[in-house]
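Board notes, transcribed. Complex of a protein with 2-deoxy-2-amino glucitol-6-phosphate.
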Amino acid sequence: MLNAHLVPPSKWVARSQGSIICLVCGIAGYVGERNAVDVVFDELVKLEYRGYDSAGVAFIEGTGIKVLKKAGRLSELGKLLGETSPTSRSAIAHSRWATHGGPTDVNAHPHLDASGNLSLIHNGIIENYLDLKDGLLQRGHKFLSQTDTEVAAHLIGEEYEKGGTLEEALIRAAKQLRGAYSLVLLSAIEPEKIVAYRKTSPLVVGIGKGENLLASDVPALLPYTREVLVLEDDTMVVLTKDSVRYLSGDGRELPVRPIYIEWDVARAERGGYEHFMRKEIHEQPDVVRQCLAGRIDESGQVRLSGVFSDNVWNEIDRVNIIACGTAYHAGLLGKHLFEKLLRLPTDVYFSSEFRYGDPVLSPKSLAIFVSQSGETADTLAALKLCKARRIRTLGIVNVVGSSIARECDRTLLTQAGPEISVASTKAYTAQVILLTLLALHIAQVQEAPGLRIADWTEELLALPNLIQEALAHEDQVIQVAELIKDMPLCFFLGRGPDASVAYEGALKMKELSYIPTEESPAGEMKHGPLALVQSGVVAVFGATEMATLDKVVSNMKEIQAREGTVVAITSDETGTVRKAADHTITMMPSRLEFLNSVLSIIPMQMLSYHVARLLGRDIDHPRNLAKSVTVE
Ligand code: AGP
């Protein structure tokens, strides 16, 4: 990777780190004695591992602001900058993953306000941007892009024109914004400062001597400083080359307490974690928040944009969910929901079987394609088969602009951010959440009897905290991992939705630790798999479905009677499961039983991770596997 700040713009060519298709916006800011444009471009290069589909820079030029931005790779922006070799003492820059509006030059950040003197870059989602945009349009504002960011820029510009400092204008505007976002501003009126606000989406400040920097992630700062201020939620900073002011969301001064970063760049890219997988497991509370952002309104109703019209939902007579691997396992939970909540017949197919199986498809059916990468060859081929038969298609995809996202009639984005580890974790959780929102959306349209949507959405909004609580039991999981790491075979068992989660838990264990697994509904054991049980064999049970708990306990005893060891993952608070199992990992229960099954994947992910870690496996790159299987 070239250090662009050591090379003049004319020679800038940022080599991509390869084609990992992953996506979260990169934020960069600089104010100080160096050429700010060089520095912020170099910061974006350091953040390239996060993935993006466009990039841009705003800098002070004379008495105004200049914005240069380009869709595509950083090298495209580098060429554009190389044509003029701009210099400035303050600049902000951004690499964008599209959520609202496609990856185009116009939609790339930074965006300007109506005056053209204020530039904004943004990471996250502003949920109420359409309402804000209506008001601004009525007040005569004109917009060039489809983004929520440009709306925010105009809103902040309006506040700025009312007087006061840039930070005061930002405080007033932030009170009108809803969502999860980080905002960074550069103004031609106060050219020597950068102002930023953090609400959920991460922001860090690099504190230098005669210079200060801003970024969405630590790696971008390390070539310049290791003194880092990590912004808390609902706080902001005002940077000049000689000062860092840290403020609360309502403008109160806060103490600046930087930390010293010991990590090397590689470790910094993993957020300090040893492996991307463990980082991504622990990102899941925020991933669920991001996936839900803007999709549940204040009355607790689901608000899904970009899906089919209501009459289509009333016409659909069958759902086929088509996917591979982890995405297929998310589809199994989708089947459970569509049949339980909507009484809608639903089948889940492996893409590789569907594409060659000459499936029987009802003309009024809906085909849902679940895919993290959006590039899986078998799933893409299955999609093309459905389109050839004029079946309606809906994508549930993490990568905007990917082939499956583009080919489907409609696409819902999981917004899980970059999933770099080959073993899928947070994408699975986001896929399940999105399938749940889709089922609830259809239930709203069909006015499904006896279903209180607000009860479901209330529990969905509470899920991130329950995931956080499950993650807090990692020490308990590590103890179990140390006890079972030498097992010759690991069963994953459950009933109802717990059986679907068991399949995903088994995939995690086998692909990470290389230990053979046997996964099935617990009731199937006696029809064959029980023959495999002997001393040393472990059976991991997901035990959250109360209606069948006594049956699951009996299945546990079947295992133990043949000298097998039982590990239970449960939200049962009666103590029944704890008494029956050899080892128990507990979770705080949701009031919605289905979500307890979803929660049970968290301990399973951690268990597989720690068994593999203890066995010294190559966790982020398991043997024989690829992150996106773009070949048959
Ligand atoms: C799961 O941990 C694996 N990475 C693999 O099974 C993956 O889920 C499968 O290849 C599907 O990938 P996709 O979601 O990108 O289509």
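The chain has three domains: 9-268, 273-470, 472-623. The pocket of 2-deoxy-2-amino glucitol-6-phosphate is lined by residues 324-327, 371-373, 376, 379, 422-424, 507, 511, 628-629 (CB under 6 Å).
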